[in-house]
Write a structure and sequence with these properties.
There is one protein chain. This protein is of the alpha+beta class. It has five domains: 57 residues, no CATH class; 40 residues; 101 residues, Immunoglobulin-like, CATH 2.60.40; 144 residues, D-Maltodextrin-Binding Protein, domain 2, CATH 3.40.190.10; 114 residues, D-Maltodextrin-Binding Protein, domain 2. The protein contains 15 helices and 25 strands. Strands 4, 6, 7, 9, 10 and 11 form a six-stranded mixed beta sheet that branches. The protein has a five-stranded mixed beta sheet with strand order 15-12-16-25-17. Strand 13 and strand 14 form a beta hairpin. Helix 6 crosses helix 14. It starts with 6 loop residues before the first helix and ends in a 5-residue tail after the last helix.
């Protein structure tokens, strides 16, 4: 039997409001089944039903969600509870779980090799291995493994790290024997006669090669790596404005020395100089880290620098220098006493800075020693934010000749000899510029001279003295 619908029902089925429902505050949804029957459900009821269904699904999902870690933990607790009568087994399982936990933590934090980097060539008498952990787990024991690559059948070299928190290990190259190419890695764990017992994931392998001395590497590669700083070297170094390459008196001397070294080593091809432009404070640390073979940058040879920078060795001096005080001519400072209570500026980390602090006790001036470049120092003089500057005389010969600055008093050698400057800082009676080399540059193989010995022999030769004299005479307005 066909069921007739009311006007309101028909309108609702077609999605239109009827006169009977228009104006009601509750909308009515009408669902029509296949049999033709309609079902009227208020919207609020429908939404409540949908919310209840969703909440049920979420609760079901939360209750029955599979969490591997929770399942493993629950199973472990169940196993332990079943073995309460066997204390020894519980203890063993606890120890095993602790080891597995440490290994899992370490697996997320494997060591990252820093130096030597993969493919790096090292020239040193002691190889510095350095690694890093992105996350510190806990102090553990670590092992360095070095695998020779150029000796068939050679055994790996294994060393325990004494202070793992430092993330460093130094290996004397004599321990490598004849090996010149090797791979290395860091393994969390211990080592004994049976081998390495890993307690976590090791680092990746890194390959490196090494030479026992600078001369050995120069023979092999034909390269000499020299560090310099054009910004703090006056007439001795500067950068060519067109090419950006270093030029100057020190640069000419380094090129001349490389020719003498080539002749001594009887190399067929000229030595290639690879220049490294460094900040002043980076020069000596770069030697310590074997980033350069030697440095030349109008640097005064001092006993204190050799004490402060382990593994750095200075050559014989090639240019004797003197320190002076300068000021603007119109300031009319004619004597050292006229600077009493005034401000004297110096470049940081130089012998000028050290001399100023010792002279202050005698002349009673104030010091500003935070300048990094001569441009900044000269600008402070011109702007009168300082009254005078303490510098090496060779840097300002041209400026004094041009009457941009005037010398205050005489050279400071006599005043400095009244202090501990020459005894404690310089370690001699005069100040001289010198080259510097690393331990590898001061190391010689049997039957050969070291780089330092070759440099000193060249400087002390008649040809060397003549060349240096020519350089000195070419200093601007000498």
């Amino acid at each position: 039997m066909r069921r007739f619908r009311s006007q309101a029902e028909g309108a609702a089925a077609r999605g239109k409001p009827s006169k009977a429902t228009t104006g009601n505050t509750t909308d009515i949804f009408s669902l029509r089944f296949a049999l033709g029957y309609g079902l009227h459900i208020p919207l609020s009821v429908l939404l409540a039903c949908i919310g209840s269904i969703a909440a049920g699904i979420f609760a079901f999902d939360q209750h029955y969600r599979v969490d591997p870690a929770k399942d493993e933990l629950a199973e472990a607790k169940q196993r332990l509870s079943q073995e309460t009568d066997t204390a020894d087994r519980i203890r063993k399982e606890s120890q095993a779980a602790d080891i597995a936990n440490r290994a899992a933590l370490q697996d997320m934090d494997a060591p990252v090799l820093m130096t030597p980097t993969n493919g790096e060539e090292v020239t040193t008498t002691e190889i510095p291995f350095h690694w890093h952990f992105t996350k510190a787990v806990s102090p553990q024991s670590y092992v360095i493994e070095i695998v020779p690559m150029d000796s068939a059948g050679a055994e790996s070299i294994v060393r325990a790290v004494v202070n793992p928190e430092n993330e460093r290990f130094y290996l004397p190259t004599k321990d490598l024997g004849s090996t010149r190419r090797a791979m290395w890695r860091v393994v969390p764990g211990t080592a004994d006669a049976d081998g390495i017992r890993a307690l976590g994931r090791s680092s990746l392998y890194g390959a490196f090669s090494w030479d026992p001395s600078t001369i050995a590497r120069v023979r092999r590669t034909g390269d000499l790596i020299i560090g310099t700083n054009p910004q703090l070297s006056g007439p001795f170094e500067r950068q060519d404005e067109g090419t950006g390459k270093p030029i100057g008196l020190d640069i000419d001397l380094a090129k001349w020395l490389s020719q003498r070294i080539q002749e001594n080593l009887k190399l067929n091809a000229p030595i290639r100089i690879r220049w490294r432009i460094l900040e002043w404070e980076e020069l000596l640390p770069s030697l310590q880290h074997n980033d350069v073979d030697l440095t030349i940058s109008s640097m005064t040879r001092t006993l204190q620098r050799e004490r402060d920078f382990r593994g750095v060795h200075f050559s014989a001096g090639y240019y004797q220098t003197h320190q002076i005080l300068i000021a603007r001519p119109e300031r009319e400072f004619h004597s050292l006493k006229s600077l009493n209570g005034r401000i004297v500026g110096t470049i940081a980390d130089t012998t000028n800075q050290q001399a100023a602090h010792l002279l202050r006790e005698r002349i009673k001036f104030n010091i500003r020693d935070d300048f990094k470049t001569f441009d900044d120092l000269y600008a402070a003089l011109d702007n009168e934010t300082i009254d005078a500057a303490l510098v090496d005389d060779v840097f300002v010969f041209d400026k004094i000749a041009a009457k941009r600055y005037a010398k205050v008093g005489d050279i400071l050698d006599g005043e400095l000899h009244k202090t501990s400057f020459y005894k404690d800082v310089i370690g001699g009676d005069t100040e001289s510029y010198a080259l510097a080399v690393s331990d590898a540059g001061n190391t010689a193989q049997v039957g050969e001279k070291s780089l330092l010995e070759l440099i000193n022999a060249s400087l002390s030769s008649d040809a060397g003295k003549a060349f240096v004299k020519q350089l000195v005479q070419s200093a601007p307005n000498r």
